[in-house]
DNA sequence: TGTGACCGAATGAACATTCAATTCAGAAAT
DNA sequence: ATTTCTGAATTGAATGTTCATTCGGTCACA
């Protein structure tokens, strides 16, 4: 990752924080500027427009997530363990960066995101990861999109409960939920045990 | 539900549709007015402000959801079947009202929602439903919030895949996922089946 | 002829963006 | 070592636009 000018970073962090608190609207550039300790014009030295600022911020975070999710991952360890590892990494990233979840939710349904439907390396990464699990027969034969969204969706849900509901999950709780998910996503056992 | 004036309903529907397409910002009152076939001033005959319009719209939809989710539900049928029924109802509501999901996501993280933290009868309904399942020992002993968000979260995820991913789920797919969830949420079976 | 629904041009505030002016760091010249 | 020069970084007041909201007036109907 290239060295980012101090100011630029400050603008990123301010934007992230303000968007969390005030939403997407409700954060005028003037406010970003004040909060970052720069003049309004300075932002336009680094970014073409508000839209551009938001898009760059999105990429900036996505890059961090790519790194975070791959921590300790390794092609050589068993797939199940990789699955757990990736999910846990993602979970902890959200926990440690609580502003990110809110920003994403705002961003995902916004004109900015829709426009160019920007390429999303992070998404591709997960996508490929699940595809591998499916091809090797370890994950039930669903499309990688479904696998990806189901797993990621549950991680996000957990992170939200944790962050907004202020409920403290332990690693064991998370593992338990992932185990449920894993059972469901893998091929062994789908027996119905009632009536 | 009280009878709603034609114009008022048109304003609701327009808002919902426009918010889906253009996001929350990006839908000026003038646009809502034009799309609803009324004058700008008319909106202010029915609603105090834009904020008020959005909040009323939220309640309006929530009321519909309360009805939708209870279709065919009945205290007398087995809890498991009620669980499946409620989830399926919710799923089909989202499928049949694809604008709603986007509107909610915008609404949930917005200044409007945060402010008064409005009472939400729909949420209470689900909450009580899960509480009942937990008290009667049919659902694993988690807080009702967790049960609620986990189940609802997965329904939403499925609905999103369906609506935005344009993947056609069958009822059987949905049932399969719900079965996985149910297995995970109930007490029997949580055995780890590897190494 | 009074009342309430409805209209839409006019108002004013908020905001993104611009730009002329200023500072600053370091390279080049002396 | 000191001065000069240059372009990049930074500033914040000014600009123009986009809206939410208002309000005086019209229309339909009792």
UniProtKB/TrEMBL annotation, chains A, B:
Full protein name: TetR/AcrR family transcriptional regulator
Location of the HTH tetR-type domain: 5-65
InterPro entries referenced in this protein's UniProt entry, alphabetically: Homeodomain-like_sf, HTH-type_Tx_Regulator, HTH_TetR, TetR-like_HI_0893_C
Entry keywords, A to Z: DNA-binding
Pfam families: TetR_HI_0893_C, TetR_N
Residue ranges for the DNA-binding region feature of this UniProt entry: 28-47
